[in-house]
Design goal:
The chain contains four helices and four strands, in the order αααββαββ. By secondary structure, it is an alpha+beta fold.
Length: 128
């Protein structure tokens, strides 16, 4: 059992590397962009807050409506019933996302998000 700690460590490392949302890479591509480039693509932010370091943080919000029935239809393990789906059940779920662009010297220094269903504007010619 001398290898048990190595196996446990490998399992824990793999658990931390789960799938990441596609928009993380798209959002990170904005790091290094000028504020004018960001605002040309995204428009004015929904709000501006002050970061811990006193620098401005531009915040963009998005909401995506997701239809849970699509999850049911694509699951091949679920048997289709003869009855119609329960019409009283709420299949539509709103996913809210806030995207933060930390600004330093008129350049996006860092990005982050909170929530799910982020609608990210792709950066053109980012060189990444």
């Amino acid at each position: 059992m001398r290898h048990a700690p190595v196996v446990i460590l490998a399992v824990l490392a793999t658990a931390c590397l789960g799938p990441r949302p596609w928009w993380e890479k798209e959002l990170a591509a904005w790091e290094g962009a000028s504020v004018s480039e960001l605002m040309d693509a995204w428009g004015p932010p929904n709000r501006t807050v002050t970061g811990d370091d006193g620098q401005p943080v531009l915040v963009y919000d998005s909401t995506v409506a997701m239809d849970r029935r699509q999850d049911i239809m694509v699951d091949p393990d679920k048997a289709l019933g003869r009855d119609a789906p329960d019409q009283g059940r709420d299949f539509i779920q709103d996913l809210d996302c806030s995207m933060y662009f930390e600004i330093e010297n008129e350049v996006v220094a860092a990005t982050r998000y909170e929530g799910a269903g982020c609608q990210v504007v792709s950066r053109k010619n980012s060189g990444r």
